[in-house]
């Protein structure tokens, strides 16, 4: 744990020194939120604006961006430039490397959520919940979402042949899932049921739905496919992906490209 914490501090310093990567990582979800919120300016369920609906959904998508994509690209880069090969020759356990990466995405995800909420509050009148139970829901959805997507990002990095191709490999499923998971197209009930059925196998749909349950009024649950927030199913699917993601990491992770 101590080595993992030290590795996490190093990862954070390296990440925030790459200013172009930092700006793109944090700015893209916020830019998409401003774009979507400006294009779809109507209301649903009386006085709840579409922009508020997009804000809650984009908070979930932002978590994926700073966990799945950041780690997929980062691990592929570490493998290509020889960082992983050098670390393998040190006494540092592989678990400490993973913990360092998890610390990086946890901090980055908190910052991303804060930025998206600031946009939602400042531009679209989103209100932070006053009920502690909603913040508890936020905590476990956020935690399971970050861990599951971070592990999947590490596993998916094995599919990238080089650091240059990694962004394309990671962004393809991420962008596709945003269309069928109720992020770009809201409310999710307007999507074909077959698309939503496919999205239901992956974390993004459940993270976005969990965040909508935190930042939207209770009556907005009727806009979900099941007509309820399905907290139990959300916890089950995200927890299962944590286990599956860990298994995929153990099977696919490699120290070098050779």
From TrEMBL:
Q: How does it sit in the membrane?
A: Multi-pass membrane protein
Q: What is its main location?
A: membrane
ABC transmembrane type-2 domain residues are: 20-256
Q: Does the keyword Membrane apply?
A: yes
Q: What is this protein called?
A: Transport permease protein
Question: Can you list the GO cellular component terms from the UniProt entry?
Answer: ATP-binding cassette (ABC) transporter complex
Alphabetically ordered keywords of this record: Antibiotic resistance, Cell membrane, Membrane, Transmembrane, Transmembrane helix, Transport
Question: Which Gene Ontology BP terms does the record give?
Answer: response to antibiotic
What Pfam families does the database record attribute to this sequence?
ABC2_membrane
């Amino acid at each position: 744990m101590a080595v993992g914490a030290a590795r996490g501090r190093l990862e954070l310093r390296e990440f925030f020194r790459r200013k172009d990567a930092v700006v793109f990582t944090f700015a893209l979800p916020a830019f998409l939120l401003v774009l979507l919120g400006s294009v779809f300016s109507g209301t649903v369920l009386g006085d709840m604006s579409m922009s508020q609906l997009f804000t809650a959904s984009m908070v979930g998508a932002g978590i994926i961006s700073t966990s799945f994509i950041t780690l997929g690209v980062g691990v592929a880069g570490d493998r290509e430039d020889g960082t992983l090969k050098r670390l393998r020759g040190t006494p540092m356990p592989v678990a400490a490397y993973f913990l360092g990466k998890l610390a990086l995405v946890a901090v980055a995800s908190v910052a991303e959520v804060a930025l998206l909420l600031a946009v939602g509050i400042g531009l679209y009148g989103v209100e932070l919940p006053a009920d502690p139970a909603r913040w508890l829901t936020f905590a476990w959805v956020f935690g399971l979402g970050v861990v599951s997507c971070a592990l999947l990002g590490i596993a998916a990095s094995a599919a990238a042949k080089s650091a240059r191709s990694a962004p394309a490999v990671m962004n393809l499923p991420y962008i596709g899932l945003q269309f069928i998971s109720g992020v770009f197209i809201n409310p999710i009930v307007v999507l074909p049921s077959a698309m939503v059925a496919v999205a239901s196998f992956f974390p993004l749909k459940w993270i976005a739905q969990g965040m909508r349950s935190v930042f939207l009024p209770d009556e907005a649950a009727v806009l979900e496919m099941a007509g309820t927030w399905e907290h139990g199913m959300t916890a089950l699917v995200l927890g299962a992906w944590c286990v599956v993601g860990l298994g995929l990491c153990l099977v696919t992770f490699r120290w070098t490209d050779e």
